[in-house]
Amino acid sequence: MLTKAYPISEIAGQTYEIDEFDCASCFLLIGQDKAMLIDTGVGIGDLAGAVRQLTDKPLITVITHGHVDHVGNAWQFDACYLNEKDWGQTGRKPDPRGDVTQRRRYADMIAHRQQGDHPRYPYDPQVDIREWERQPNWLPLCDGDRFDLGGGRVITAHACPGHTPGQIALLDASTRILFVGDAVNGNIMFMSKPGQPGFTSVEKAHEALKALRDLGDHYDHIYNGHHDYRPFGQPLREDVLPDAIALCQQLISGEFTPTYEKNPMVGWPDQLAVHKGITRIAYTLEGIHEPE
């Protein structure tokens, strides 16, 4: 039997952060008529079962972007919304069935990185991280899409390309929370180069981050998809978004010295990076400007 022993924190009324054992955070928003699940993690355990312990209302599943640590348990749900730009350059939809080894490796890396605080997790990677049994029905997610959960709870999608071309943020007007996936956090990665799958220039990401900043009158808190950049159950620090915007501007203007440093993701190659406060942006020199 797959584990359902996820740590869960109620971050606002009828709004839950589900901790996928330090690998990723999923969020459950419950309205009067429907519920929404934001992201499905790297794919550990029975996420659908954990959700059903919190609500039996019809469920909308939305994926902020197409990386494996956010789509990993998508197979447990009938349908998932994802921006088509993250379906793959040939229109291929996400399908980590062949990536079960990669997903187990990712979970193992997180466990080793967190070992001092969490020496044991209540899951068996050989049992709880498994190949997909089926494909969900993939539905396109677009900038401006609105999801009415009932009782005045409406969630609006906002495109924010950068970390991936199809990255989406979700604004919950009722709780005044902005859910950003990996668009904003303490370790932002813009690692693709022009011509590579997933490329988005720092210039374009800069504009998207400024658009999120300009939504500031509509939200009080930001929650990103990995709580290792903030305490579990707590929002992202208010300085992270403005510092990320300032770092992008620094890269675009050329006011930096390229410096390689150790990657905070254990076992990954060294990276070029810039820092401000607690915020770090990893980049490639070729990926700063829009191709001419």
Keywords, please?
292 residues, alpha/beta, Metallo-beta-lactamase, Chain A, five-stranded mixed sheet, 6 helices, 16 strands, 20% helix, globular
Summarize the structure.
The protein is of the alpha/beta class.
Secondary-structure blueprint:
Blueprint: E1 8-12, E2 15-19, E3 25-30, E4 35-38, H1 47-54, E5 59-62, H2 68-71, E6 79-82, H3 100-113, H4 125-128, E7 137-140, E8 146-150, E9 153-159, E10 168-172, E11 177-179, E12 187-190, H5 202-214, E13 221-223, H6 240-253, E14 260-261, E15 271-276, E16 279-283
Parallel strand pairs: 4-5, 6-7, 11-13, 12-16
Antiparallel strand pairs: 1-2, 2-3, 3-4, 8-9, 9-10, 10-11, 14-15, 15-16
Helix pairs in contact: 5-6
Report on the architecture of this protein:
By secondary structure, this protein is of the alpha/beta class. The protein has one domain: Metallo-beta-lactamase, Chain A, CATH 3.60.15. Helices cover 20% and strands 25% of the residues. The protein contains 6 helices and 16 strands. The strands form 4 sheets. A 5-stranded mixed sheet has the order 1-2-3-4-5, with no helix packed on it. Helix 5 packs antiparallel against helix 6. The model has no long low-confidence stretch (mean pLDDT 93).
- What is the H-and-E element order? EEEEHEHEHHEEEEEEHEHEEE
Lateral strand order in the biggest sheet: 1-2-3-4-5
Stretches where pLDDT is under 50 for at least 5 consecutive residues are none
Q: Termini, distance in Å?
A: 53 Å
CATH superfamily: Ribonuclease Z/Hydroxyacylglutathione hydrolase-like
User: Quaternary arrangement of the chains shown?
Assistant: single chain
Mean pLDDT: 93
Total helical segments: 6
Total beta-strand segments: 16
Count of discrete domains: 1
Q: At CATH's second level, what is the architecture?
A: 4-Layer Sandwich
Structural class: alpha/beta
How big is the Rg? 18 Å
CATH topology value: Metallo-beta-lactamase, Chain A
Largest sheet: 5 strands, mixed
Helix coverage percent of residues? 10-25%
Shape: globular
